């Protein structure tokens, strides 16, 4: 059961025709970086709600959510139309286990995202814990087209602060660029191109991998990482691969 309260849209930033970020003012429960809230709108005679990861770090006052308009989707196209000052339903309670306290110790943190699943990683990266626990952090963002590489200013700010400890690797799958890796994450793990790009290796001893987004990417990537000796992280059997599926 959701516990809806009213929030106010402070900003709806449109990155492309499909991608947008909502900044929301609302008095919800505290959350941990990597968790998600629920946004809802009254559609016909009911509130339609969906989970959205927090993009902002927990200490930041405004809530931020990064979303794509799914053309046949009931909620995401309507959220895209919201304007400053509009009301939105938001669940007072927060949820989710895609958080660093579920991740075992390691030296290298690999964060793998498709599309809008970049969001929870930005929340984690703008919090302190990941920098206290890991020496190196690699953020991989895979999109279809280069104009979908949102939040590059945020990555640049992180690079300024953390320098060689932080590497950002874009993947663009459906057009050629002179800066991004082409194709998909699992293929670039299998053929070693991702490791070459950052000059680091996936190892069961040193790596922790968090990955989020497209469920098929999660499966294919897990299989590619298994071939390198990494395994799923479970509470009863700790491993190196921690995942969150968006659908
Ligand atoms: C734990 C969790 C956290 C989530 N966080 C986010 C988030 O931060 N940002 C976000 O955009 N979405 C997020 N989602 C997905 C989100 O809840 C909605 O499903 C999405 O916004 C589409 O809503 P809809 O009602 O329009 O269509 P739905 O009926 O919910 O989805 C229809 C179809 O759209 C596709 N789809 C859904 N979400 C995405 C997506 N993000 N990218 C590409 N294709 C998608 C899938 O094929 C899905 O079957 C999250 C989902 C989960 C389970
Ligand atoms: N992004 C757009 O231009 C566009 C346009 C129209 C509609 N939409 C709608 O938006 C949604 C898709 O959004 P999206 O583009 O953010 O998400 P997406 O389809 O998950 O694609 C994001 C990235 O994930 C990659 N990917 C997909 N399956 C993978 C797998 N099994 N293993 C590894 N990587 C994989 C994609 O590569 P590939 O390119 O190789 O698949 C792409 O680089 C759909 O609902 C679609 O209808 C998007």
Question: Can you give a write-up of this model?
Answer:
By secondary structure, the protein is of the alpha/beta class. It has seven helices and twelve strands. The chain has a six-stranded antiparallel β-sheet with strand order 4-3-6-1-2-5. Strands 10-9-8-7-11-12 form a six-stranded parallel β-sheet, sandwiched between helices. The radius of gyration is 18 Å and the shape is globular. NADP nicotinamide-adenine-dinucleotide phosphate binds near residues 171 and 216.
Fraction of residues in β-strands: 25-35%
N to C succession of SSEs: EEEEEHEEHHEHEEHHEHE
The separation of the N and C termini measures: 19 Å
> Bound compounds, please?
flavin-adenine dinucleotide, NADP nicotinamide-adenine-dinucleotide phosphate
Rg computed from alpha carbons, rounded to a whole number of angstroms:
18 Å
Total helices: the number is 7
The tally of structural domains comes to 2
The CATH superfamily title of the largest domain: Nucleotide-binding domain of ferredoxin-NADP reductase (FNR) module
Note the overall shape: globular
Strand line-up across the major sheet = 4-3-6-1-2-5
Q: CATH first level of the largest domain: which class?
A: Alpha Beta
Mean pLDDT, to the nearest integer, reads 98
User: What CATH architecture of the largest domain would you give?
Assistant: 3-Layer(aba) Sandwich
- Kindly report the CATH topology of the largest domain: Rossmann fold
Major beta sheet summary: 6 strands, antiparallel
Q: Quickly give the structural class.
A: alpha/beta
């Amino acid at each position: 059961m959701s516990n809806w309260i009213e929030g106010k849209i402070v900003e709806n930033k449109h990155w492309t025709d499909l991608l947008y970020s909502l900044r929301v003012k609302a008095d919800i429960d505290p959350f941990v970086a990597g968790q998600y809230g629920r946004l809802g709108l009254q559609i016909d005679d009911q509130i339609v709600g969906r989970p959205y990861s927090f993009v902002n770090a927990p200490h930041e006052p405004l809530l931020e959510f990064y979303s794509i308009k799914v053309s046949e989707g009931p909620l995401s196209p309507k959220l895209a139309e919201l304007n400053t000052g509009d009301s939105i339903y938001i669940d007072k309670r927060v949820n989710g286990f895609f958080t660093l306290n579920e991740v075992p110790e390691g030296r290298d943190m690999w964060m793998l995202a498709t599309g809008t699943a970049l969001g929870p990683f930005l929340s984690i990266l703008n919090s302190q814990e990941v920098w206290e626990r890991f020496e190196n952090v690699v953020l991989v963002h895979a999109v279809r087209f280069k104009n979908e590489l949102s939040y590059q200013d945020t990555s640049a700010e992180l690079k300024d602060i953390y320098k060689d400890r932080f590497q950002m690797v874009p993947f663009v799958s459906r057009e050629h660029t002179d800066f991004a890796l082409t194709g998909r994450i699992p293929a670039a793990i299998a053929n070693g191109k991702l490791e070459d790009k950052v000059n680091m290796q996936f190892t069961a001893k040193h790596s922790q991998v968090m990955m989020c987004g497209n469920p098929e990417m999660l499966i294919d990537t897990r299989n590619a990482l298994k071939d390198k000796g990494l395994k799923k992280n479970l509470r009863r059997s700790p491993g190196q691969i921690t995942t969150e599926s968006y659908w």
